[in-house]
Amino acid sequence: xxxxxxxxxxxxxxxQYRQLLPTLExxxxxxxxxxxxxxxxxxxxxxxxxxxxxxxxxxxRKLALKGTKYKRIDDIxxxxxxxVITVYTDEVDKVAVIVKNIFDIDWQExxxxxxxxxxxxxxxxSLHYICRxxxxxxxxxxxxxxxxxxxxxxxxxxxxxxGDVKIPREYLRQFNRLAGMMELLDDExxxxxxxxxxxxxxxxxxVKSGHLDDVPLSPDSLHNYLDLKPFDxxxxxxxxxxQAEIIPVSVMPYLPVLESFGLETLGDMQRFxxxxxxxxxxxxxxxxxxxxxxxxxxNTALQYLCMVYVLKHxxxxxxxxxxxxxxxxxxxxxxxxxxMIIKQAETLPFMQGRRS
Length: 356
Hints:
The chain has helices at residues 8-41, 56-66, 89-102, 147-159, 169-209, 219-225, 232-239, 255-260, 266-288, 300-312, 316-328, 333-345; strands at 48-53, 80-86, 103-105, 111-112, 127-133, 139-146, 245-247, 295-297. It is α/β, with parallel strands linked by helices. It folds into two domains: 8-187, Beta Polymerase, domain 2; 219-351, no CATH class. The longest helix has 41 residues, at 169-209.
């Protein structure tokens, strides 16, 4: 540290800063609380919201470099700083819209660094607003950037990219190449999210329209298909055996089973249900009629449909055990359960003429 006595003007600003610290802390709290609550209420997910108050040491360095620029301490706009880190580039603009609604923006001091690059250059991207609470008071800085932009900024500061030492041309070129790659990644992740969102909407429209053969079986499409309640009728028939209550559970663990059956589209799924529902009910009846079970899970219908499918396609004991291994985890008990199902099913019409 240098022992040079601070400039009297700089020292006066530092003294003003010390007196202002309680106000800065309150401003930081108020701005952070308002921003975080508003983003949450608007359903905007962000990776992080950071805040900081400039330290006296940092302020002294700033004043040593350009203290003559400031007449009073409130001319310095970044004594309080907030930063919003989003996942995708388009979310930066969404956050910016919200910020403009809840804070007053000093447009002359604000800057969009995303628009400052030359056509042949890449690098640090961020949207900087100089804000003030609607109730007045000191200004503060608010930065909005993506997670990848934040990583790039951290790398630049860590490597001294923005320091006083001039970076040799060959290293500068490597920086620019890497920056370009990160910028491309940012854009491509946003583009891919848009494509996937559009695909989900298209899939949902096909499901609602009944064009099930055009929809590949996948976690997303199955989730949308469940909105049609395809298992409700069979579940109600099975529950009526013992007047059982049906409790909701996920059927998604059955997706690997359905794929192992060779089902490729939601049309295949619908035919799977239509072709096997009556036999699934008969198997459930044979099993449940001798019990007083009065609580069933909402995946019961699908479970019996799968069991019937295995038995109809000569999967036998090994096929049933494999089914239960997928659903419940591998266990010797699954073999005993398979033996019990085969015994209960052997007198049912769909099993006549088949070997277990």
